[in-house]
Structures are given as C-alpha cells and as structure tokens.
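Can't paste images in this forum, so I'm doing it all in text. The chain is below; anyone willing to post the predicted structure tokens underneath?
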Amino acid sequence: MKRLLLLLLVLIACQPATHADVRLNTLRRSLVRVSVTAQEPNYRVPWNPGSVGSGVGAGFVISGQRIMTNAHVVSNGRFLTIERENDAKKYLARVIHVAHDCDLAVLQLEDPSFFKNTAALDLGGLPEIESTVSVYGYPIGGDRLSVTRGVVSRIDFQLYSHSGADSHLAIQIDAAINPGNSGGPVMQDGKVVGVAFQGYSGAVAQNVGYMIPTPVIRRFLKDIEDGTYDRYVDLSVQTFPLQNPAMRKALGLEDNDHGILISEVMSAGCAHGILQKGDVLMKIDGMTVASDGFVELDGSRIEMPEIVERKFKGEIVKLSVIRASKPLELEVKLDGIWPYLMQANSYDTKPRFILFAGLLFQPLSREFIDAWDPDDLRLRFFFDSFISDSIYEKFPEVVVLSALLPDPVNTYLGDFRNGILEEVNGEKIKSLKDAAAAFAKPAERYVLKFLGNGRPLVLESSTLETARERILQRYNVKEEERL
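Text version of the structure:
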C-alpha cells in the first residue's frame, strides 16, 4: 500500500506543466511589488515639509523596459523600490511619466538587469460583460502574490477618485480591490485587459472593484510617446438630452431620437466662440448622436464624451449642429480646460502661499478645502460653482486669508479669516502672484479689501519689519512665500 502511494506521488510530481501553469509562471516574472515612501504636504502649515509615510502597490512590466502602475501608488513619492518574487534584491525606481487625471504612471529602473528573464505583458481589448478576469496584486500589503477572480459586470463612465474631478471609461468587476491591489494587472486569456485602481469599502458595497480599461491605458501610452504628458482634452460644454417629444418639437427637430442640446459653453474652453448655447449637436466626427447622448462605435453604444477622450491635444473634432433651424458644420481644435484643475486633487507639488504680517494667504483649491474644512458659505460657493457659474472669469485664482499667526501687528483681525482678497492698495487681486506683487510695493500702509466685507484690513508699514522677524522666529517659519 505504501509502495502504491509512493508511486502515485511520483507520477503526480512528474506530470508535465499545464498551459495555465506556464502562463502563471510567465506572469510571475512580469509582476512587481511597488514600495513607496511618500511625503504628504501640509496645507495648514505650508512652509513645513509635511509628514512621511509608506505604502505598497503592484505593477507590471510593459514594453521598453518600463513598469506600469497607478498614479496614486507613487504620488508624492520620495523613494521607490521594486521587488519581484524569488528575488531578494530591492531595485531602485523613479517615475518618468504620471497621469493624475487617469490614475496611471510609468516607472523606470536604475538597474536594467532587473528585466533579465522578464516579459512585457501585452494589452488586450475590452472584456465582454459576464466574462471572467483575474486580478493580480499584493492586497493589504502582503509579501506574496495574490490572485483573485471576478466577473465583468459593467462598463461605463466612472469618477476616478484619485483626481476627484475626472470621469473616464471604467470596468466594474465583482472582485474586491483592496490596498495593495492598486496598479496590478487584470488579465484575461493571457493579456492585460485593465489595471486595478479603486473599489468600495464594505460599508458601501460588497465585492465591487474597478479597473482602468485598455482604451485609457493605450491613450496614456500614446500621449507620452513624445516625452511629455498633455492630459486629457475636453470639449468644454454641458449637454442636455432631447428625449422629450415636446422639447424636440419646440426646437424644430424630427421625431427620430437624434441630437442633444448644448446647454452651456465654457468661456475658458476650446469650443468657446464656435459652439453656442442652444445649438443641437447632431453628429460628432460623422457619428450620429442619439437623443440620450450616446453614439454607436464599433458595434457598441458609448457616451459621446468618449469620442473626444480618445483624441489628443491639438487634434480636430468635427461637429454637425443645428442652430436656429439651420444645419452647420463646425470644427473644434481640442485642448484641456484649466478651471477644472482647481476642483481636482493635486499631487507632487508643494503648497503655494504668502505669509505677510502673520497673515497666511492661500489659493482656493480642493486641498485647501480638505485641510481647513471652512464653514464660510461664500467660500464654499466659490469652490463648488467655480466652473458652473464662471467665477474663474473674474477670479482666475481665488486668494483666501486662511489663517493668522497671532502677533501684536495683527491683533483683532480674526474676523477677516476665510475672506477672499479682492484689492490691495487699490490694485485688483486675481492671483497669488498679484498679491505678492502688491505686498512687495513700498507703501505707508497696506489697505486690504475683502469681497463682501464693508470694512478694509489696514496694516501700518512702520510696524511690519520688526513684526516680520518676530513672527518668523516665534513660529519657526523657514519660507515666507511660495508662488
């Protein structure tokens, strides 16, 4: 009996490796663990360097001896190392391209010997709904590779949480995406069909994760071919569906479910002066736009913005519109829209500020809101409506008095906190640089006016220089401004 059992064990051990085993071994040589030491900026004390922490993510080898991972894995990174299974060495790496708007990054290793016996993974297409995919990574910071399976349940536009302001094509799967999975490949039939990047906590949804699909990945890789990343472009318009028969009749449209209404054209966008509010968009690049805002491409119905998303800065999009019952053919040269950046998370940059007489001025941003959590209603309105109400036209940058470092020179000025700086000595303030220039000009006194505040803030110049040295020393301030 023992002899028979031993024989069976020998036979099992001698079985030839299956195709799945070979494929998994190939994948193991192409998957990496990314360890990052990051320094998070401090927006409440912006002259300080910020706190240092560490994290773990995943990545995989792509063509050109490069590693692909998520942008959020390496954001604010100061020291990066790459590890692979069955190799005790830690390889130093650096970020060569990062796209915070679509949460992707490409790394380069200082030691090219790392790539010996590795294989670049190929990109596949969009997986079918209800098809199975495999997710690879290091969830919850584990040291050994983890593989989970999930079923593709949805393909549509989703908000990318890393930027907090950009929405792109995303694929939902019923496999949980946990910290450490980020940046790992999602595989199907031996090819990469996505990059794991975000999911829901158990309090929101169970076993729901998202991956960045290959159209987004290919666009990123194409964009960086010239050595720089130009970000996504945007048509910079708002649209309204035209599915209501009465509305279509009022606009003189046929009852064929074609066309959407242009409800707003951003003055800072590339379509300004070409499209007009009230235009009906009928076609984009020759493809008919349905009344719900979808177009048909390659046999699938996709949202109209994806047609623009597949293009690059400087490219042309052709639009067929109806304006005042007359058909028009228009062309728009595509570009980004800078006001969106104010509402997006920013990374790999130091906080900008001015410290003048113990008064801390900072530009309004998502980081500002997150750090200070102000309850001032005007400030909240300026942030929330910066784009929709075209606040950027009058205030390209909203300069806020965020805090005071108490000193005799600024006593009793606390009521001005959270005020939006409008003028300094009669000069309009439209940016932090405007404020710095105004403060740098010699004057007997500095009169600061804040939006909606009837009384000005006044500082006597004769008291400022001694106060300056006193404040810098007392609060250990090493830097007075960063523009």
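The first strand starts at residue 31 and ends at 40. The two ends are 81 Å apart (CA to CA).
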